[in-house]
Amino acid sequence: MPLSAVTATPSFCADAGALCEPVWDATGNEVLARAAGWLTDEALRILGIVVVALVAMWVLKVLIGRLGRSMIKGAEKVGSYVPERLVPGERSGRSEARAVTLTHIATSVSIAVVVLVATTAILSALGVSLAALIASAGVVGVALGFGAQNLVRDVLAGWFILVEDRYGVGDIIDAGPPVTGTVERITLRSTRLRDINGTVWHIANGEMVRVGNKSQSWSRAVVDVVVTPDADVDRACALLGEVGEELRGEPEWAARITGAPDVLGVHLIDATGVTLRVVCDTEPAGQFQVEREYRKRVLAAFEVAGVPLASVAALPLPPAP
Predict the structure, then answer these.
(1) CB-based contacts of 6: which residues, under 8 Å, 6+ apart?
(2) pLDDT the model gives residue 102
(3) Whose CB among 20, 21, 65, 125 lies 3.0–4.6 Å from 16's, allowing a Cys bridge?
(4) Quick one: which of 258, 234, 246, 260 has its CA closest to 293?
């Protein structure tokens, strides 16, 4: 056998790709032969990993989109406690916004996982030893795990806040004294709201044990009026109802008041006088404006009708010892 035939196949092509030996035979250049072998082995393997990762991302995006929409529909069916007649028309738009937010977050997380797995596979294809990386990551992960417990709790709480629609941007919530205000932003980790004084509060989602939503689906205006003990209570109650019907009949307030005023009558009797209460349903977050206007008109109506309002200053002083 000729010597050229024996030396035609170099040793560096033994573990290279299929094109290494033909390129070596054609050019005799080791660099080109190694490059051709790499392109037919590692490069194709990396390309296959990238293609599989892209397909997995597309499939996950489609599945998460469908799952997000079904979760929103299921949450509304199971958790709805509001009669259909009181559900505003914009609720469907809010559901769509929640679905978009949830699917966006879930898609981002799934893409991050796919990218991490694909990166690990590519490093393995390039011959990078993953044992040391995994070992060091394990040590770091254990150290970070103890510090990330609250972060995981906040993220899970934020996820359920969005899924269950406990509150949304623009809602007025009570997250425990003294934190009461309008929600400006919601993330998986925290909620930002602004109170009536303009103070911005940042609250970790996992720290909110209970939340009172004052503007979900519909609200209720509650007006208490205190009259003197000798006042004509029946006349006062009639005036409260008349003021409410007059307010409801005006176009400016008709859209804000969704239910007829309900005069509950005597609510409390104490040293200050007799407290009368009237309530009426309003649009979400509309109870505050309705209450202020209601009180202003009641004040004027009682003054015209001569119904005396109680005054702490008018109470008799206790006898001197």
Answers:
(1) none
(2) 72
(3) 20
(4) 246
- Report which DSSP code applies to 7: S
Question: Which of 52-61, 160-169, 296-305 is least confident?
Answer: 160-169
Which tokens in the block code for residue 111? 């893409």
| DSSP H helices in 169-319 | 233-249, 251-254, 287-305
Angle (deg, nearest 10), helices 130-147 and 149-164: 70
Calpha distance 206→208 (Å, rounded) = 6
Q: Which residues contact 151 (CB under 8 A, 6 or more apart)?
A: 189
Is residue 175 within 8 Å of 193, Cβ to Cβ?
A: yes
Q: Is the pTM of this model over 0.70?
A: no
DSSP string, 122-191: HHHHTT--HHHHHHHHHHHHHHHHHHTHHHHHHHHHHHHHHHHTS--TT-EEE-STT-EEEEEEE-SSEE
Q: Which residue has the tokens 């040293």?
A: 271
pLDDT at 186: 85
Q: Measured between alpha carbons, how far is 262 from 188 in angstroms, rounded to an integer?
A: 40
Q: Which residues pair with 142 in a beta bridge?
A: none
**Which letter does DSSP use for residue 90 in this model?**
T
Please, what are the domains in the chain?
Answer: 1-128 (no CATH), 164-213 (2.30.30.60), 219-312 (3.30.70.100)
3 state DSSP class of 202:
strand
- Residue in the structure block whose two tokens are 């406690």: 81
Amino acid present at 317: L
How would you classify the pairing of strands 273-282 and 262-270? antiparallel
Q: pLDDT of 87-140, one tens digit each? A: 444 454 566 666 666 777 778 788 888 988 888 888 777 766 666 666 666 666
Is the Cα torsion angle 181, 183, 185, 191 positive or negative in sign? positive
Contact 214, 174 (CB under 8 A): yes
What is residue 223's three-state secondary structure?
A: strand
